[in-house]
Design a protein that fits this description.
The chain is globular. The longest helix is centred in the first third of the chain and has 23 residues. The N and C termini lie far apart (about 75 Å). It folds into two domains: about 210 residues, 3-Layer(aba) Sandwich (D-Maltodextrin-Binding Protein, domain 2), CATH 3.40.190.10; about 210 residues, D-Maltodextrin-Binding Protein, domain 2. About 50% of the residues lie in helices and about 10% in strands. The chain is an alpha/beta fold.
Length: about 475
């Protein structure tokens, strides 16, 4: 008996000693993203859930302060062969991601569709590329190949202070530029009018949205989709029309420029403080805008981004980012990364992500789920603590999410309203962030110094074309 007890004891000790080795045997899957706030917390919550379901994998999510820091770290990691399995790139860096190569000439990223191949599923998860919202699928498809995994997707929409519009006698939320002007005339005529009527950030994204709304392309060669873009159309008729309207709104005292390019915070705060009646902004903050406005004592009503009423409305673009799969991964790492990406962006997780942020659900099935009262039961079993602790979400139980929060559906409906074309698919162009900088600098020159619109945009176009030419010389095959 004593020998038996000793044997059992030795067996237990042996098992305890090798248990860490088994635990450490899980395949490590690193994902780097450009978030350090609650969005990083949510992604880490999801990784913990995934690791429970798939103990053979260990997903680790690391956050960076911004995309620039993330891209720099990613480039260095590839040089040192320490790259993560998955990296988040914003939509304007898509051409850069497609072109990124290692010193030996190999591509740094592998298209998701190529990695999956003709398989019907990966560890039980079907790719279901057709389930992605059309605008999202079209943006990230090149030469018929689905390139990266959509995650945080947005569009530019408008929020209106409903009480201010009602008090001014504005019966319907404006949908065109002319209607915005008419509404602003009424709002600013009130005895207790706000400081200004409307604002939005001086960011290239809004410029691109307005060009696309008019059915025009931002760059040549089918917006960079039929072939590599070699020329920008920053001074096009559509572009001049939009910026001229923008300047006229400022001249009338309706639009207020905060004085800083890409000033998301300043424009947001102006709206919440009641200094302006309308805000054109990213739908990614729909939940925050709705809640903060309610906290400030007014209703923020979401609507489509106003467009040029003299032109047929072509549609709006997507924004946000996708998740790219690193090339050259070990087989087990790539398999784990694909499993993680398909699970991470599935119907329920996509719906949950939308609810806590405002980013649109990237899958049609997520939109359909949220249109019913079954969403809570579907999401709750695998929900993150952030979702479970959200009073707005919890209070919406028992009814369709879009009935509880109508603003949440605006961006999805806006994207669905677009007429498919190279213009509304969005531009794919190298050095896109640098090109955007030329646009915002030119617009600031117009707003602050009164420079002629066509002159400023023509100068920006010339500089942007030089930037693009230099990029293509370095990156074109």
């Amino acid at each position: 008996m004593q020998r038996k007890n000793i044997f059992v004891l030795l067996l237990v000790v042996m098992l305890m000693s090798i248990a860490p080795a088994f635990a450490q045997g899980a395949t490590e899957i690193k994902m780097w993203i450009a978030f350090t706030d609650y969005r990083l917390d949510w992604a880490r919550d999801k990784a913990a859930k995934f690791n429970e379901v798939f103990p053979q994998y260990n997903v680790i999510v690391e956050g960076y302060d911004n995309y620039e820091a993330l891209f720099a770290a990613t480039a260095l990691a590839f040089e040192n062969n320490t790259q993560p399995a998955v990296v988040q790139y914003f939509e304007a860096a898509t051409r850069d991601a497609l072109d990124a190569r290692n010193a030996d000439g190999t591509l740094r990223f592998k298209p998701i569709a190529d990695a999956i191949g003709d398989r019907a599923d990966v560890n039980g998860f079907a790719p279901a590329f057709d389930d992605f919202v059309d605008a999202v699928r079209e943006y990230y498809t090149f030469d018929g190949t689905f390139a990266s995994m959509p995650w945080n997707t947005s569009s530019s929409i408008m929020f209106s202070n409903q009480e201010l519009l009602t008090a001014a006698g504005v019966e319907a939320i404006p949908t065109t530029w002319a209607e915005v002007e008419a509404a602003c005339a009424k709002i600013m005529a009130m005895p207790d009018a706000p400081t200004n009527c409307i604002t939005w950030p001086n960011h290239g994204w809004f410029f691109e949205q307005s060009v696309a709304q008019q059915g025009a392309e931002l760059v040549n060669n089918g917006n960079g989709r039929a072939d590599r873009a070699t020329e920008t159309f920053i001074a096009s008729e559509a572009a001049v029309s939009y910026v001229s309207w923008w300047k006229s709104m400022q001249d009338a005292g309706y639009y207020v420029y905060t004085g800083s390019q890409r000033d998301w915070t300043g424009t947001y705060n102006a709206f919440i403080a009641g200094d302006v009646a309308m805000l054109i902004y990213s739908s990614s903050d729909t939940t925050a805008v709705t809640n903060d406005a309610a906290g400030a004592g007014f209703t923020a009503a979401g609507s489509f981004m106003p467009h040029n009423g003299d032109m047929d409305y072509a549609g709006n673009l997507i924004g946000g980012a996708t998740l790219w799969l690193s090339n050259g991964l070990a087989t087990e790492v790539e398999e784990g990364a694909l499993t993680w990406l398909l699970w991470f962006t599935n119907t329920e997780n996509g719906a949950e992500w939308h609810q806590i942020t405002g980013y649109i659900p990237v899958r049609k099935s997520s939109v359909e789920l949220l249109a019913t009262d079954a969403w809570f039961a579907a999401i709750e079993p695998m929900a993150s603590p952030i979702w479970a602790d959200n009073e707005l979400i919890q209070g919406a139980q028992g009814q369709a999410w879009y009935d509880a929060l109508p603003n949440a559906r605006v961006a999805s409906d806006q994207l669905a309203a677009a007429t498919p074309s190279s213009a509304t698919a969005g531009a794919i162009v190298g050095a896109f962030p640098a090109i955007r900088n030329e646009v915002t600098a030119a617009i600031e020159d117009i707003l602050v110094n009164g420079t002629d619109v066509a002159e400023a945009l023509t100068g920006a176009q010339e500089r942007a074309n030089t930037v693009l030419e230099e990029y293509n010389l370095l990156n074109a095959e």
